[in-house]
Records
---
Amino acid sequence: MANSMKTIVKKCFPKAIQVTDRFHVQKLATEALQDIRIKHRWDAIDLENEQIKQARLNNKTYNPLVFNNGDTRKQLLARSRYLLYKSPQNWTENQYLKKSNFV
């Protein structure tokens, strides 16, 4: 799938047809999903930092929203990596709680 390999194959095997195998498609999809999860986690961190800042300005104590399973949004996004790759029938009860909080 790399451009350098594509060029080499075109020169060496001009009649070859390019195909993409399942492994590389899955790898790209997994990497894209991971990038999205990390972006949302950074957004959650930024939001929490802003809420902490606002609480300090108002001389209040910051208390983050805690879901039923005991995780904050930031923690949930950090721990959700393997949940996203696991088949739902293999989830633990705690992972079902995470999903219901996230939806």
---
Amino acid sequence: MPITRTSLLVRLRADGDPAGWHEFVVLYEPLLRACARRAGIREHDVPDVVQDVLLKLLRLLPGFEYAPARGRFRAWLGTVCRTAISDWRRRQRHALASMPVAETSMADDTDEREWETEHRRHVLRHALATVQRQVSPGAWTCFERYVLQERSASTVAQELSLTSSAVYVIASRVRARLRQKCAQFDEDLA
């Protein structure tokens, strides 16, 4: 990821940089969508809720001061997301009153843990996609079959005309790169 979280936030605060907003949306929209779904928002309403969150962020980010000592950006973003979902629900109450909806309180510790869990999933998905583009197709296939599909090293070795030792080495190298990308992405989105 070429642009760090801090520089991206500075760009968004300074002038609402359209390229910066595009990058921000690409990074965070999947996370915001997942949060809305976990909150029990119906699938066809999820884009509206995400749009509400992004509009709220558009208003709040110019005044946002990133201070790592006070907390992580993702915690603040989680609070903004939960607040936007609550606001959306209040506005939609009359429409939702007649429809069964899985109600989930977005204000307790469980929700913060769910936000963190979803954030970790988001980091992993992004890191997997990034690493897949960076390694050779053969190395990715080996890693995918051995690690992600949990097939035995001997089976993967036979399928790919490798030795079991080669499967271990390739998987280890890809796993190390994946850990590095997860750590980098997690830090970028702190």
---
Amino acid sequence: MEKMNTRDALIEAGIREIHTYGMQNFSIRRIAASCGVSCATPYKHFKNRDEFILAMFRYVNTQWAAIHAKIVEAPLSAKERILETCITYIHFLVDNASYHSLVLTKNENLTESQIRERSEISKESRNLIDAYCREVNMPEEDRIRKTFLVRSLLYGAAIMIDNGQLENSDSTYAMIRTTIAREFDLP
């Protein structure tokens, strides 16, 4: 396995820091200590706290984009692509529990550029849903409602699996897949 570079190690530690302590208690000193580097080292990679947090959002987005690109490249129908994106996104959040703490951070704790970057992670799934809804001539009101329901289900399911309210099992993912498919009248 390839050793993680210092910048990425700091980012991963920063994401875990937010997961454990929250954005208000974010400590660059604690992050440096967890990586076994000096307190000055993070500032060699990030100009300030805000740039460090922005880098964390970009890192998570890059991780998801690489996974999502494989779905987009696969020979799937628009319907199948929505389902695969949704299920894979839940797996992504569950497999990286600290990522969803970052993704769900409240806006009042973020700069405008951080808010924009955070929203990038769900851009592709929104685009897939929008494209499908346009393809089937779905009224705008229905598209908005369905997008809200599916996104709520994705984040809710990831949190419920993470905290043990739902079992992390094939049957849970099958239930989620069926629920999403029904919402879009997908096979």
---
Amino acid sequence: MRSLNSKDGASFLPSDYVRGKGQARASMFAILLFVLVLAGVIGAFFVNHQRWNRVREEQKLVAAAFKEETAKIEQLKVLEEQRVVLTDKAEIVTALKDRVPRSVLMGEIVRGIGSGITLTEIDLEGDRVRPPAPAPNPNGAVKSIGVNGVGSSKEQAPAKPKVHPPRFVFKLTVDGLSENNDDIADYLVSLKGSPLLKDVELQYINETLIDSVQYRKFRITMSLAPDANASMVEGTVEIGIEPQEVAGSFEDTQD
């Protein structure tokens, strides 16, 4: 069989045909590669687009949840401010309320009096305890941070001073006469055993002559306990006034 090729390997096909066929094959390969790359780019675009859509949806959900939680936090702040205000008002009302009626206090003072003791004077003094002064701000007025830097906006208004509930310290002085020292000692022990009193001290005992009778004049000082309450005394009953009774008495007064 006769070979189509010569001894030196040359082809009998035209060189232009061979060159064109090679270029067509290279063009087809380049087009195929371009289509594959374009398909990959388009696929990656759609995948990233779907991912971005999911990210946006999650961002919207997070923003909605954050907004809802922010509203709850603001509501909690308002409730906390109301709680502080109500607590301060309750403390003021409690401080203004007389927790130890004078009748109960007098009952505690005269309860331990023996048959040989006569009280000549009872003195009750009350001093109001001043709240501590607020510490001054060493840096002066507080400036808020504005857009252009520190202190660019107006100075913040100073905070309103807190209204402290009134507090009082009550001191009692009891003067009396007795025929012997034993009755004075027993009376002193009775006062020290009272839950309403503290710092009970005997100041002095002096002999005095009244209508040719020898007596011992004494003075006892004491303080009302800070947490004193009439309910601490056994046998005391708190009595309240019903609103209907108050309205009925008011109507009777008008009639």
